[in-house]
Amino acid sequence: MAVRRESELYEPVKTFFARRGYDVRAEVRGCDLVAFHPERSRPVVAELKKSFTLALLLQGLDRQRTGADVWLAVERPRAGGGRSRRLTELASLCRRLGLGLLTVVFRRGKEPLLEVWCEPAEAADGLPFLREGRRKAGVRALRREFEARSGDYNVGGSAGRKLVTAYRERAIRCALALYCHGAASPRQIAEWTGCPNVGPLLRDNHYGWFRRPSRGRYELTEQGVRALAEFAAAARAWAARYPWTAGVALPGAAGDGDASGDAGVTDDGHDGGAGEEAGA
Q: Is pLDDT above 60 for 35?
C-alpha cells in the first residue's frame, strides 16, 4: 500500500518515538520530526521520505549538524528478495555514516509496522563530526524552538502548509489578548500573555494580524480574527492557560491548524531573522 504523501509517515513515526519515551514535535527548524527524551541529552531528528534517495541521504548527513541522533524513515517497498537485500545494503551504508534507518509498512486495517534496520551511532569510518561546542549549540537551538511551542500542531513532511512555530504562537497569544480585551498597549499585552518582545512583534506585523489605531495602542484586524479560527488548536491551548479568556467565545475552528489563509504565506521564513525558525 504505497503512500501518496510523505506526511502520511509522520503519525506512525511519531508514535514509534513516543513509545520510546520521547516528546515529539513536527517541523522544527526545518526538520520533519524532532524529539527530546527526559533522560537523554541528545535529541532525535527524523527525516521522512516515500522512498530512499540520494537526496534523503544527503539531508540526513546535513541534519547531523544539529547535534542530534538522525534517523531516515521511509516506506518499505513491497515484499521481494531483491528489495530486502537493497534495504540491508542501505542499512549498512547508514550505519557507516552514523544514521539510523527506519521503515514503515502500511497494512490495510492494521496498525503500521515499523522496522528498525539500524540505530544512529558514531560513524564507523571516522567521518568528521561536530566539535562538542558546536554540537551543544545545535542542540540548544533545537530545544529553544521545541520548548517554546505549546504542542504539536504541524505534520512532519508537509509541503505548502503554514507552520505553527514558536514565533507564530507568540503572535497567536497577542491576538488572543486583543480579541478578548480590545485595543491595548504592548506593555498590557505582555502582562496579560507573558510573551517576550511583544512590541517588535506587533510593529513588524509579519502576518497582517495587527494594526495601530493610535500611538502606543494596537488592535486586531479581521485577518487576525480569522487566524484564531485557522489555528484553532493552538489558540485553544493558550486560551486554556489564561483566566481572562473565560466566557469568551473564540472564533470557530477552521481545521485546527490546517492552514489556508494569511496572504498566501506558506512558511515562516522571516522567523529565522527573529531568532526562531531558521530554514523552516
A: yes
Beta pairing partners, 51? none
Cβ burial of 55 (10 Å; 0-12, 13-18, 19+) is exposed
State whether residue 218 is helix, strand or coil.
Answer: strand
Q: Distance between CA atoms of 188 and 205, rounded to whole angstroms?
A: 17
Tell me the three cell numbers of residue 2: 504505497
Does the predicted model carry a pTM greater than 0.85?
no
Query: Could you report the per-residue pLDDT of 163-207, keeping only the tens digit for each?
Result: 999 999 999 999 999 999 999 999 999 999 999 999 999 999 999
Cα-Cα-Cα-Cα torsion 60, 64, 68, 73, nearest 10 degrees, comes to 10
Extract long-range pairs of 90-96: CB within 8 Å, 24+ residues apart: 90/52, 90/117, 91/117, 91/118, 92/118, 93/57, 94/57, 94/60, 94/118, 95/121, 95/124, 96/123, 96/124, 96/125
Strands 217-220 and 69-75: unpaired
Helix (H) or strand (E) holding 117: strand 113-118
**Which range, of 57-66, 82-91, 113-122, averages the lowest pLDDT?**
82-91
C-alpha cell at 63: 541534519
